Every structure is written in structure tokens, then in C-alpha cells.
Amino acid sequence: MHVDIFTDMTKQKITIAIDGFSSTGKSTIAKALAKELNYIYVDTGAMYRAVTLYAMQNNYISSDSFNPTQLINDLDKVKLSFTFNETLGFAEMYLNNTNVEKEIRTIEVSKLVSKVAAISEVRKKLVSEQQEMGKEKGIVMDGRDIGTVVFPDAELKLFMTASADKRAKRRYKELIDRGDNVNYEEILHNVQERDRIDSTREDSPLIKAEDAIEFDNSDMGLKEQFERVMTLVKDRL
Ligand code: DC
Hints:
The protein is α/β, with parallel strands linked by helices. The chain has one domain: P-loop containing nucleotide triphosphate hydrolases (Rossmann fold, 3-Layer(aba) Sandwich), CATH 3.40.50. It is 46% helix and 18% strand. It contains nine helices and ten strands. It has helices at residues 26-37, 44-57, 68-74, 107-117, 120-133, 146-150, 164-177, 184-200, 222-236, and strands at residues 15-20, 40-43, 61-62, 65-66, 80-85, 90-95, 98-99, 139-143, 156-161, 213-216. The strands form three sheets. It has a five-stranded parallel beta sheet. It has a three-stranded antiparallel beta sheet with strand order 5-6-7, covered by helices on one side. It has a two-stranded antiparallel ribbon with strand order 3-4. β3 and β4 form a beta hairpin. α2 (44-57) packs across α5 (120-133) and α7 (164-177) packs across α8. It starts with 14 loop residues before the first strand and ends with a helix. The model has no long low-confidence stretch (mean pLDDT 93). 2'-deoxycytidine-5'-monophosphate (DC) is lined by residues 22, 44-45, 48-49, 113-114, 117, 143-146, 194, 198.
């Protein structure tokens, strides 16, 4: 077991921020790191997705309409929480005490989430909840603004990239494997469109923090990525 190597080192907890484009494998590497280090893992994309689901359920957003004011007025009613699922090995997203882990991963939510994530009031609420979750350190958080806005002082910052084609193929496989009826072109278009909106929005656009280490994992397997990242973690500890 690997933990014994870190017994002394893990007494000192650090913050690990993982940012990057959609479907670059951020959550896979983040979950593996959290497991190895016995850290908390937080998927901040799930939080933006849950707020989007809330807006959809209340008819504040659809493919042809969006009423940000109604959503902003309702933000106090949006309660987000994570509950660890022992079987799955990660924390699932709850919206107002209902498990929404499956609903937030649909293509419908993916198509609308970037619009919701561009609203400053939504970002303010979620960033403050994320900072609260990470105040004791010992956390791996992935998203778009973790190294730039949420934890600018994180000891380790990673910025993940991969070609749009590789990312769309990964996402397509994930959705097909879970039984969703999607086509590849639709996924590729969604990945490119989210990249565009996420990188060009005014509030906290997706950019690489100056001190983040860039990882292009288009052709890198999980084992190699994990080993490289663990070397960086050991340096920081
Ligand atoms: O990581 P993901 O694809 O599940 O994220 C969904 C969307 O949420 C993504 O298109 C941009 C937004 N997001 C964000 O703006 N800031 C974050 N920290 C995490 C996600």
C-alpha cells in the first residue's frame, strides 16, 4: 500500500487545484489523487450543473429562453451538498436533498450549463461554498477557476488539456456506456461550444493560472499521468 510512504508527508495537507477544458479527464485524475492521499475530492462542475438543473426544473432556462433574474432571485433556495457513496468511491451531488448525480450528466444540462456558469451571482455563491469546503486543506478540487479564483494560493495547480476530438470521443463513450442516446457530432459541438463560452466569459474565464503546470493528456494513459502528478505532489509535500 502506497500510503505508508506518505505517512509523515500526509500529516501536512496541501490544496490541489485542477483546471482545464471539459472532458480532459480532470475528475479521473482528481479522484485517483484524493484516494491515494486520503483527501476530499470536490467536482465543482457538478455544482454548476446542479444549479442549471434547478433552473431547468423551474423553467428559468431552456434551449430557446433564459431568465437569469428569476434564477438569481431564487439562489437562496438552491441547497447543494455532496454525500460520499462508498460503493462508487466518490461523493455524489445532491440538490435540495435529492441525489441528482445522474440527471446533471445529461447532454441537455451540458448544453445549458455554460450560460448559467457565466452569471456572477451564481459564481459568487458557489465559489464561497467551495472555499469553505477547502479551508482545512487536504482537498483536490477540479473546475475552471480553482487555481485562479477559488484557491489562488493552492500548493499544486494543474491545467489539463487534450484535443477537442479526443475529449469528445471520451465523453461520447461515457454517455453511450450509460445508455444515453447521443451522436458524436452533437457531443463534439457541445465540447467546442463550452470551451468557447467558458474561456470568453467576463467573470472568471477559463485561463491557465501563471503557476499552473500544463498537462496535455491527448495521448497519455491514466497510469502515466497519475505517476507524473504524484511526483509533483511529493515535491510539494
Ligand atoms: O467540469 P464540467 O464539464 O462538469 O463543468 C460543467 C460546466 O460548469 C463547464 O462547462 C463550465 C462550468 N464550470 C465553471 O464555470 N467553473 C467551475 N469551477 C467548474 C465548472
